[in-house]
Design brief:
The complex is a heterodimer of chains A (about 160) and B (about 110). Chain A is α+β, with helices and mostly antiparallel strands. Chain A has four helices and five strands; from the N terminus they run αβααββαββ. Chain A has a five-stranded antiparallel β-sheet, covered by helices on one side. Chain B has four helices and five strands. In chain B, a hairpin with a 3-residue loop joins strand 1 and strand 2. The chains are: A alpha+beta (about 160), B alpha/beta (about 110).
Chain lengths: ~160, ~110
């Protein structure tokens, strides 16, 4: 590579971002899925990353709707999607009870069908299908950020 | 989400699922799936080949029915999941609780069909 190019400052990463606001009811999930499908198609997100994003979005939004609110009032949940060339990220924020999903202790999974619990796999799936994640409580809102890498770690194109 | 069922020889029930096992899809088939799998059969094969998505709500339905089948002395197995659905089954630990087979022939052999 010529020396003039090496000396040049790196190109800033292009970051694209879109937001969807939904109400705290599970029937909103179908609308979220359609929005997500349109966005990942427009951004040409690879199929495997799009699947993981779909999965963790479903689990994260379901958790918020089912567990964040003590009352039955209508509340707003904000879902933000952003991506660069290397990753795609979802951030779900809500004004419900403070809840850090990653602070929940991990229990060893039973390998016997009779002993196995039926539910409670959502947070485990979120961890298993993301490359980076964090939870923050900011100004009375929960923020759950989940990142999935889109570049193929084995490929060198 | 769509569900078809067929009773094969040797008291083996084959259930074919089509579509997404997300919240909406799971709710659409849950009642029928639970009713079908509550009847005792020697084995229940669930063909997952046309299932394009699986979330924890769908896992819940599969595990509930697998437990019921097992308690009644039968077994429920999963057949031919797509690679990414297989990944969800593996990483959620479900494939260590419910047997997963790559195709119908292998599944029939494993459940001892004649």
């Amino acid at each position: 590579m010529p020396a003039t190019l090496q000396a040049k400052a790196p190109e800033p990463e292009t970051l694209q971002e879109v937001t969807l606001v939904i109400e705290n009811r599970l029937s909103e999930l179908a609308r979220v899925e359609r929005w997500l499908a349109e966005t990942v198609a427009a951004w040409s997100i690879p199929e495997r990353a799009a699947f993981a994003l779909d999965l963790v979005m479903n689990e994260a939004v379901t958790n918020v709707v089912n567990h964040a609110y003590r009352d039955t009032g209508v509340r707003e949940i904000r879902i933000l999607l952003r991506h660069t060339d290397d990753w795609v990220e979802i951030e779900v924020s809500d004004d419900g009870e403070a809840f850090d999903p990653f602070a929940v202790p991990v229990v060893a999974a039973p390998t016997d069908l009779e002993q196995a619990s039926i539910g409670g796999r959502g947070i485990h799936l979120i961890k298993a299908f993301t490359d980076d994640r964090d939870y923050r409580r900011v100004a009375g809102r929960n923020h759950l950020r989940l990142r999935i890498e889109t570049s193929d770690p084995s490929g060198d194109a | 989400m769509q569900l078809d069922s067929e009773l094969l020889d040797d008291d083996i029930l084959k259930i074919t699922l089509h579509g997404r096992l997300d919240l909406e899809g799971t709710l659409a088939i849950d009642l029928k799936f639970t009713a079908l799998t509550a009847v005792k059969h020697r084995a229940i094969l669930v063909d997952m080949g046309a299932v394009s998505f699986l979330a924890s709500i769908g896992i819940r339905t599969l595990l509930t029915s697998a437990k019921v089948a097992s308690r009644r002395g039968g077994q429920l197995v999963l057949v031919n999941p797509q690679p990414m659905v297989r990944d969800v089954l593996d990483r959620s630990g479900v494939s260590s609780l419910i047997a997963v087979y790559p195709d119908l022939g292998t599944a029939l052999e494993a459940v001892g069909a004649s």
